[in-house]
Amino acid sequence: MSQNRKLRRARREAEEEKQGKKVVTWIFAALVIFAVIYLVVLMINQM
Hints:
Elements: H1 2-46
């Protein structure tokens, strides 16, 4: 029983770490996209 619990906990921790990395990637991508949009808006306003 204890081994099953340890196995489940390790599996859950690995899954949470994987999801955490995915969230960080999406946040970084969103920041890059917003930065590009901001630069485009600035360039349009300069014209």
